[in-house]
């Protein structure tokens, strides 16, 4: 793999410190400390309104932080030069391309603008969409527009690619193509990908690093497998009334199903069984859970509609 030279400040492509973005009456980012190392695919997840898009907007210099710092490719986000911008690709859910331009015109523009333009990579993605060169952007379907956007971003051969819910509106085949292209550009093209999505199946497939945001703060960061290994589904049978377990250490979510108590639990070892037995459980067993359920359990506790909105864990 042919990696570009390292950036300043260790080899973190993204670094934020106590980053806060305050709107009237709302705090989108709340003292966020985040480091994203070079290489791989980093998935940012969080409930609606957790601050994912706000983070991207501040990092790319589209929005000024209220306080704290945000650095991207070693440079203050508020001071990005055209040269640095050329090393960053960005795809957002709105797929904002000039609607009046033809696909071939937009492509020619990008080809001129980016010195590292990779024609092969561009066509490898675009050929999966039924897009004609003389079609105007406004005439494309939402999914086709997403495809053109991604092809353009990957053709740019960026050092860092930031994608804000890019697969919204894509059909299953297009989504697979998209994810394969992402993995290919990360593993063979040396692009570091930072990707935000609500699709856990996608993240499970492609992500090397999972970053969980909650209300503008970092709740967790690790490899997805590592995160799942720390989560367990415990199922206990209480012959009499099940005790209230919501406040028990590690318990993220409690459900009562067919007379059994189901608990999603973080970072608790075998002593958790003894704890449940002490509380009167007759039978207890546990099993691993997938990423979807694990993230769901983690986010449910701090969710805006939840009874318990205090985060249970700090960032790893
Ligand atoms: N211009 C704005 N004015 C006021 N509040 C805003 C503004 N932009 C974002 N917010 C608020 O900041 C919070 C974070 O928004 P953001 O778009 O970053 O969330 P998100 O994690 O991307 O959410 P989603 O998953 O729903 O796209 C939300 O509560 C949102 O209402």
TrEMBL record:
It holds the Pfam family ABC_tran. Residues 14-240 form the ABC transporter domain. SMART domains: AAA (SM00382). Keywords: ATP-binding, Cell membrane, Membrane, Nucleotide-binding. This is ABC transporter ATP-binding protein. CDD domains: ABC_DR_subfamily_A. GO terms for molecular function: ATP binding. It comes from Duganella zoogloeoides.
């Amino acid at each position: 793999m042919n990696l570009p030279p390292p950036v300043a400040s260790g080899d973190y492509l993204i670094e934020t410190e106590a980053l806060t973005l305050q709107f009237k009456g709302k705090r989108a980012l709340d003292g966020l400390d985040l480091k994203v190392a070079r290489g791989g695919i980093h998935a940012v997840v969080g409930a609606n309104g957790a601050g994912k898009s706000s983070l991207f907007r501040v990092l790319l210099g589209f929005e000024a932080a209220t306080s704290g710092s945000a650095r991207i490719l070693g440079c203050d986000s508020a001071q990005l030069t055209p040269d640095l911008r050329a090393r960053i690709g960005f795809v957002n859910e709105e797929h904002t391309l000039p609607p009046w331009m033809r696909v071939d015109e937009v492509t020619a523009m990008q080809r001129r603008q980016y010195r590292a333009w990779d024609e092969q990579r561009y066509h490898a993605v675009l050929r999966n969409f039924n897009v004609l060169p003389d079609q105007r952007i406004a005439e494309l379907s939402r999914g086709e527009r997403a495809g053109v956007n991604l092809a353009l971003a990957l053709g740019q051969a960026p050092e860092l690619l930031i994608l804000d819910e890019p697969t919204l509106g894509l059909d299953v085949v297009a989504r697979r193509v998209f994810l394969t292209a992402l993995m290919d550009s990360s593993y063979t093209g040396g692009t570091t990908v930072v990707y935000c999505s609500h699709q856990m199946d996608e993240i499970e497939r492609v992500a090397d690093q999972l970053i969980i945001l909650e209300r503008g703060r970092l709740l967790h960061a690790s490899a997805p497998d590592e995160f799942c290994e720390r989560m367990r589904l415990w199922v206990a049978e209480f012959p009499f009334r099940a005790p209230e377990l919501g406040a028990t250490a590690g318990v993220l979510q409690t459900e009562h199903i067919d007379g059994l108590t189901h608990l999603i639990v973080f970072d608790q070892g075998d002593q958790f069984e003894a704890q449940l037995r002490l509380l009167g459980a007759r039978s207890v067993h546990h099993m691993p859970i997938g990423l979807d359920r694990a993230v769901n359990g983690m986010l449910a506790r701090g969710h805006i509609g939840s009874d318990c909105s205090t985060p249970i864990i700090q960032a790893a």
